Amino acid sequence: MQWVNKESSNNLENNDMKAIQINENSVIINSIKCIKHEIDVPTSICKGMLIETLKKRMMRGEVVRFCYQKLDGSIRYAVGTLQTDAVQSNINGGGIPKRFYGMFVYLDLQKMAWRGFKEERIIGIVD
Predict the structure, then answer these.
(1) What is the gyration radius of the CA atoms in the chain, in angstroms?
(2) Is residue 10 over pLDDT 70?
């Protein structure tokens, strides 16, 4: 059981901080994708949670800094979002381009372009 005093509770309400509702099924699916790439189970679960947290934060309009390993082995520090207005203004046509199929796709705010990475390559959320 978690105890929150009234002053802390008011501060949370004033800052509009809301808890992220994690979809357990999505975490499991992302974890299984990692396990298929021979990543150990605890790390796979952690990566599944990271991907779900990243997705939820981006979808609620946050600009999120995170990093992942590119296919060439280098580390990419990215700033991205899935905020509705930004996404709507950057959609051309319908559907997901074939090159992004099976990937985590986000709007890169540094290049103002769509980018994607394989879920098992996530390293972490910077802030």
Answers:
(1) 16
(2) no
Tell me the three state secondary structure of residue 8: helix
Which residue reads 């975490």 in tokens?
27
Q: Give the whole-angstrom CA distance, residue 82 versus residue 31.
A: 22
C-alpha distances in Å from residue 120, one per residue of 34, 63, 84, 106:
5, 21, 25, 15
Which residues are 115's β-sheet partners?
Answer: 106
Considering only CA atoms, which of 22, 100, 95, 8 is closest in space to residue 55? 22
Instruction: Read off the pTM.
Output: 0.77
pLDDT confidence of residue 17 = 62
CB neighbour list of residue 53: distance below 8 Å, 6 or more residues apart: 20, 22, 125
Percent above pLDDT 90 for the chain: 47
Helix-helix angle 41-59:24-36, to 10 degrees: 130
Q: How many residues are there in the chain?
A: 127
**Tens-digit pLDDT profile for residues 95-111:** 667 778 889 999 999 99
Q: Which residues pair with 69 in a beta bridge?
A: 75
Based on DSSP, count helices (H) and strands (E) in the chain, helices before strands: 4, 5
